[in-house]
């Protein structure tokens, strides 16, 4: 399945990739090869194949869910670089909020 340069650019856009013209030219045949392989998979008879989450026969070993005591506030804050009473003090992530009347 050959892809046009516009189709490769569209795939790049969907993947949020900025592709140069050289990359469009190089990736076109590679993506076409991948799509050809996927088409081959569609030809397989999967009528009697049970759905599975992994190709390996794996048993999960889960530990018992037991209730245990958590940290006290003091224990949680003991290594905090900065704190404000009983809270972590961190720099603002989204900037500072403007107050009405500020210009």
Automatic annotation (TrEMBL):
<keyword id="KW-0808">Transferase</keyword>
<keyword id="KW-0648">Protein biosynthesis</keyword>
<keyword id="KW-0436">Ligase</keyword>
<keyword id="KW-0067">ATP-binding</keyword>
<keyword id="KW-0547">Nucleotide-binding</keyword>
<dbReference type="GO" id="GO:0006450">
    <property type="term" value="P:regulation of translational fidelity"/>
</dbReference>
<dbReference type="GO" id="GO:0050566">
    <property type="term" value="F:asparaginyl-tRNA synthase (glutamine-hydrolyzing) activity"/>
</dbReference>
<comment type="similarity">
    <text>Belongs to the GatC family.</text>
</comment>
<dbReference type="GO" id="GO:0005524">
    <property type="term" value="F:ATP binding"/>
</dbReference>
<dbReference type="GO" id="GO:0016740">
    <property type="term" value="F:transferase activity"/>
</dbReference>
<dbReference type="GO" id="GO:0006412">
    <property type="term" value="P:translation"/>
</dbReference>
<dbReference type="Pfam" id="PF02686">
    <property type="entry name" value="GatC"/>
</dbReference>
<dbReference type="GO" id="GO:0070681">
    <property type="term" value="P:glutaminyl-tRNAGln biosynthesis via transamidation"/>
</dbReference>
<comment type="function">
    <text>Allows the formation of correctly charged Asn-tRNA(Asn) or Gln-tRNA(Gln) through the transamidation of misacylated Asp-tRNA(Asn) or Glu-tRNA(Gln) in organisms which lack either or both of asparaginyl-tRNA or glutaminyl-tRNA synthetases. The reaction takes place in the presence of glutamine and ATP through an activated phospho-Asp-tRNA(Asn) or phospho-Glu-tRNA(Gln).</text>
</comment>
<comment type="subunit">
    <text>Heterotrimer of A, B and C subunits.</text>
</comment>
<dbReference type="InterPro" id="IPR036113">
    <property type="entry name" value="Asp/Glu-ADT_sf_sub_c"/>
</dbReference>
<dbReference type="GO" id="GO:0050567">
    <property type="term" value="F:glutaminyl-tRNA synthase (glutamine-hydrolyzing) activity"/>
</dbReference>
<protein>
    <recommendedName>
        <fullName>Aspartyl/glutamyl-tRNA(Asn/Gln) amidotransferase subunit C</fullName>
        <ecNumber>6.3.5.-</ecNumber>
    </recommendedName>
</protein>
<dbReference type="InterPro" id="IPR003837">
    <property type="entry name" value="GatC"/>
</dbReference>
């Amino acid at each position: 399945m050959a892809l046009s340069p516009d189709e490769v650019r569209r795939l790049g856009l969907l993947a949020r990739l900025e592709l140069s013209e050289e990359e469009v030219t190089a990736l076109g045949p590679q993506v076409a090869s991948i799509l050809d392989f996927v088409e081959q998979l569609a030809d397989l008879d999967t009528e009697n194949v049970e759905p599975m989450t992994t190709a390996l026969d794996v048993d999960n070993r889960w530990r018992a869910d037991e209730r245990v005591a958590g940290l006290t506030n003091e224990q949680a804050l003991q290594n905090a670089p900065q704190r404000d009473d009983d809270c972590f003090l961190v720099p603002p992530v989204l900037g500072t909020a403007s107050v009405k009347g500020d210009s």
